[in-house]
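Standup notes
- DV: blocked on the single-chain target, sequence here:
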Amino acid sequence: MILNTEHIAKSFGRNKVLKNISFQLKAGSITGIVGENGSGKSVLMDIIVGARSADRGIINRNGKIGYCPQRALLFPHLTVQEHFIYFAIAYGIGRDQLKRRSEELLLHFNYRKYKQEKIINLSGGTQQKLNLSIALLHEPDLLILDEPYNGFDWDTYQMFWNYTNHLKKQGCAILIVTHLLSEKERLDRIYKLENGILI
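- DV (later): unblocked, structure below
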């Protein structure tokens, strides 16, 4: 089991955002969590990746985690390549793996020509490609994606699903969190987060 959560609860004052959330992610699976804006999806993601603590409950994670947040955490005056170098150091990736992985991702998501461009000069869609690539750079065992295809055009959207299918075959567990899921047949399991309860 890559991820196991048991009885996760979180409140802000009197507002109970998450109530007794329990679910599991298996290796080689794609799982979706859908819910309206404000339903607590991002709070749950923050708890899973360790950016926020739960009031109660247990989380067990196995392997490397890749997290693609809804809002890209990028530095406007660094280039695409400088971002790869920065996060490679954070992940503890060596030079050879950095070169191999960055080239693979630049080519697959078709933005190699922007390698030396500063983020401030890139479109929102290209920034989102980099945001996703950073989450993939260290070849995670668990990939958590919060509204991952915002700003993608149709071709990039197809590239995204092609890559997730590739990761699934390699044994990666993928969690996609979104308010809109149009291609449900691509997922192994779908949960709905509503009124703090996962259904």
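- Follow-up: The beta strands are 3-12, 15-25, 30-34, 56-61, 65-68, 142-146, 173-178, 189-194, 197-198.
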